[in-house]
Amino acid sequence: MVLSRKTASPNIPASVLAVCRVLSGRGYQAYVVGGAIRDALLGKEAKDWDITTDATPDQVRQLFTKTLATGEKYGTITVIVDNHSVEVTTMRKDSLYSDARHPDHVEFTTDLTADLGRRDFTVNAIAYDPLSQTFYDPYHGLKDLRRKILRTVGDPKARFSEDALRMLRLIRFSATLGFRPEKNTLKGIQPQLIARIAKERIKEELSKLLLAESIAQPLQLLYTSGLLEQIIPELALTAGVKQGSYHPWDVLGHSITACQAIKPELHLRLAALLHDVGKPQTMSEDAKGIHFYGHDQIGAELAEAILQRLTYSKRIQNKVALLIRHHMFQIHPHSSDKAIRRLIHRVGKENIHDLIELRKADVLGMRHNPRQVWEYFQALTERVLQIIESDHAFTLADLAVSGTDLIEELSLKPGPLIGKILAGLLDKVLDEPELNTRPQLLALAKAFIESPPATDAEF
Asked: CA-CA distance, 412 to 402, in Å (whole number)?
């Protein structure tokens, strides 16, 4: 089980070393395990450091002055050293996983190999003794790490049946680590089991996947594995939906390509992934080709419902839905100032740049010349910036008069009429920004009261 010391020793934080020294000094085993060792060996920044030991939770508590019982049921005690948290978990063997997520009960052990054998993937089943600078690798995780392969510890079906979230973690790790899932491990995926996992946990894994650098192949794998149909069936339905001669991919392939092309910010990646989710419902075909009239509106509604189901925050739901609802905007670098002002008004200054990013990713997802696409949207962005920096009015708050001004200056009573007048004034100012002065707006409001138009459009 002891590997030769050819593998370079990872840098271990002082707080972790201190915990290992205390445990070892009292005669207990102490090994650094899990993702921190994996990431350190890959040259990545390791964040959460875990130690496994044969000391029981009670014994760990007795050895350290400041501890927290963060997972005592499963043998985990958090030790605080110099304001740093280090998780210390007693070596254990797990029983059956009746809920496909957690073991029914755990049995503590002194056998390191047995403890490593309950872990998900071989690259996460490497133990390191920082005091002797020795690796313990009974499941050949170091070899898989060098070959960039994701393989379960033992039988894949058994591992995924124990904890169904591991299936999604497999795909997430393929994105964040850039590793290739081993063939038998993929065959072990049982997508129906993911239904037993809490939506919050699925959301966490999906979010980590989407924020990775290279996500196109992992997202395709999410579909081919059958997991996408379980998690976002509305998006899975876009597979095989053709879009006509301008699109080299079906709707799902296009959505994945757009998702890869957009900035790695969660709301943008979600918007790009879901921006065409309304196309299957709106597809029609005639002599002129394939059409998806209203897919932006339907897509916004579907995306909001999907994100709510996956327990994303209301802020994320609203922002993603807004971007999808408006992603088919018609302005371009040579549009009139009036048209651009009205789009900014509809989506808000805080969202206009994200909307342009989404549209750019959408176009890149059609395999257009990337340089030409960049130049086009750079020109559009510059136009939008010029108009925003001109200090135009885009909201009611930007008007030179307020509802209070109308009440006091025109002797009006509070009520719906005030809001109607302000909306009409903003509509005028969007067309003619020079009207946004107090005297001119009060004059327009007075004229409206004295001679109200037949329709709102005639304000």
From this structure: 13
